[in-house]
Amino acid sequence: MGKHRSRLKILAKILSIVSANNGARKTQIMYQAYLSYKLLVRYLDDLTQAGLVRCENGTCYELTSKGKVFLTRFNEYSESCKFVEEQLDQIEYQKSTLEEMFCQGEQSDID
After folding, report:
1. End-to-end distance of the chain based on CA atoms, in angstroms?
2. How far apart, in whole angstroms, are the C-alpha atoms of residue 56 and residue 62?
3. Distance separating alpha carbons of residues 13 and 110, to the nearest angstrom
4. Domains of the chain: which residue ranges?
5. Mean per-residue pLDDT over the chain, rounded
6. For the domain with range 7-78, which CATH number is right: 3.30.1330.40, 3.40.50.300, 1.10.1040.10, 1.10.10.10?
7. Is 69's pLDDT higher than 60?
């Protein structure tokens, strides 16, 4: 693995699990989000306090309307990040191409 997920990505993952299942229990969220129980409880508490999820019957978490808005905005943000990363990759490729051209020019001057 090696890469750590950001807090926002973890929160969005939990919300998407709850949304996709029209409600979810802790165990289901824990396994699908790849979280330890301790971390799961912390994130669920944060989401509940923020009003993004609510716990029904003490066992099932449901997405609130505020949670739906958050998830929609996160998905838009995520798409924007993906677009910017693709643009940065393209710029980096152009830079390396220019550097290669410069280095080849120096080689031909030496010969």
Report:
1. 46
2. 7
3. 56
4. 7-78
5. 90
6. 1.10.10.10
7. yes
